[in-house]
Amino acid sequence: MILDGSEMPRLLELVRAAAQGGVDAVHLRARDAPASLLVEWATAARQVLNQYPRTLLLVNDRLDVAILSGADGVHLPERSFPPTLADEIRGLAGREGFVVGRSVHSADAVAEPGTEELDYIVFGHVFATPSKQGMAPRGVEALARAARASSVPMLAIGGISPENAAQAIRAGAAGVVVKRAIVEAQDPSAAAWELRRRVDAAWRGASVDNRFGNDKQEAEAQEAMLQVSVNGKVISAPPGATLRDLLEAHGIDPHQVAVAHNEEIVEKGRLGEITLREGDAVEIVRVMAGG
Fold first, then answer.
1. Its pTM surpasses 0.90
2. Which 3 state secondary structure label does DSSP give 117?
3. How far apart are CA 70 and CA 48, in angstroms?
4. 210 or 27, which is more confident?
5. H-type helices in the chain, by residue range?
6. CATH code assigned to 226-286
7. Between 3.40.1190.20, 3.20.20.70, 3.30.565.10, 3.30.1360.70, what CATH number should domain 2-221 receive?
């Protein structure tokens, strides 16, 4: 998920919601902000994501900010450092597993020397999007051609929604990058969760060689979404989600409900301690105060 400068007033809220919804990475992209403010924002996001080790923090273009804030990697615009410098960038970061990705807009850019040294590339824009008014989308066929030419996982960007994410995966994308689909949703965490569910379902039905992330992230991403029962309805939940995450992802105030996990009542102070497992049964009852 991308966060631009306009979203910074809601930074911590959106970062937490994305992580709770199963997003693989949060990408901070505030092109016009001064370095001091970028470091402040990235450091704050890092502190939130320390609670959600499954979700990476990436900083757009600014390697210095990524290093100073403890981010997990840097994302390079197509006109930034060439991909041949990926290993040198990791060396400067001085951390094992530091992620280096890049944006591309054509199959020719996918084939540039050094692309194989990247952890991922982002291709777009695939579908029509308000942020690219007057510019024709490149389309699913162009995405498919670029994916076939890529030696690293390719993510699709541009107009991605729960309704079309599966098209991108079937075309060969290893994942999707979104902004509006989560940021502008009434419930960002639930929106992220639904998008994650759609993408995982598409993965299971498509032939995708790689998924986004470093080795640890790829191994974790290979886990299927958990299937749990909530009030008798089976829903999907990302691996590592807790009962508190489940409630917050659906906009439920933990103080206003009673929760049973596998037929045992859970104290409110323990909701963040109990991790969901495949096949769990959760009952949520809203508590009404009387007088």
1. no
2. helix
3. 12
4. 27
5. 11-20, 35-49, 63-69, 86-93, 107-110, 139-149, 165-170, 180-183, 188-205, 215-221, 243-249
6. 3.10.20.30
7. 3.20.20.70
